[in-house]
Recover the amino acids of this structure.
């Protein structure tokens, strides 16, 4: 990739608010979606624009339960790149929270990672328009619109113009969390209304038993629509999935 050379002041100013990073010191996998099972390193950004009751990373936004000074840090793009490069793993997953709230400084991070031969997956809730400079080879968006069953008002979590922009980019997949067949019907409505493809469905659940049970409940309905079905590998593979 080519582009303007950043000044020293600009480089020093390129910082991100981080909740956690993992996968270098203790190796792990991407646990969901098209890259499920691929070795990966993770950078989890803090802050979110939604308040889903079923969220499993409330430490990124719920300041009634967490002190942001204790659960987040400011880290430079240069330090994050250096950390990633300690691992030979190709895939870097940038998640949240909602990472695109900080996309101004994600642009130089993605550029640096691509220059080092990595590929990048952003996990986003689909409510924030992506910067056009992120719509490039080597970058994919796993867009996960939040349904009402996930504990979020769809008037806030479903952003039609943003979903269409992701669909038109051809650099996004759409991954929905579902807890029942009723959710599958709602997903079908959104898919048809906004032209979303390809579609992945992931069972809701924070235990192996719940993930297995919900997978079996959803499988026939997902297969009937010729969509993709993904599991939650971290929940199944690790006794303590946090940070894995």
């Amino acid at each position: 990739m080519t582009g303007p050379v950043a000044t020293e002041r600009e480089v020093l100013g390129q910082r991100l608010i981080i909740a956690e990073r993992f996968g270098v010191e203790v190796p792990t996998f991407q646990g969901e979606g098209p890259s499920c099972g691929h070795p990966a390193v993770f950078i989890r950004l803090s802050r979110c624009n939604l308040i889903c009751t079923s969220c499993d990373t409330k430490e990124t936004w719920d300041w009634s339960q967490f002190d942001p000074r204790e659960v987040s840090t400011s880290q430079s793009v240069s330090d994050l790149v250096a950390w990633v490069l300690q691992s030979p793993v190709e895939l870097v997953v940038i998640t949240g929270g909602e990472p695109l709230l900080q996309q101004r400084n994600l642009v130089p991070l993605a550029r640096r990672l691509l220059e080092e031969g990595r590929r990048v997956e952003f996990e986003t809730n689909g409510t924030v328009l992506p910067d056009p400079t992120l719509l490039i080879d080597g970058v994919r968006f796993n867009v996960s619109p939040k349904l009402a069953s996930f504990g979020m008002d769809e008037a806030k979590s479903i952003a039609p113009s943003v979903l269409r922009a992701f669909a038109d980019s051809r650099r996004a997949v759409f991954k929905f969390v579902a807890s029942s067949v009723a959710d599958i019907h709602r997903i079908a409505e959104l898919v048809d209304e906004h032209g979303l493809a390809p579609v992945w469905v992931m069972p809701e659940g924070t235990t192996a038993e719940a993930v297995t049970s919900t997978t079996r409940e959803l499988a026939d309905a997902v297969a009937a629509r010729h969509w993709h079905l993904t599991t939650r590998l971290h929940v199944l593979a690790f006794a303590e999935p946090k940070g894995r």
About this structure: Residues 8-237 form a domain with the TIM Barrel fold (CATH 3.20.20.70). The chain has one domain: 8-237.
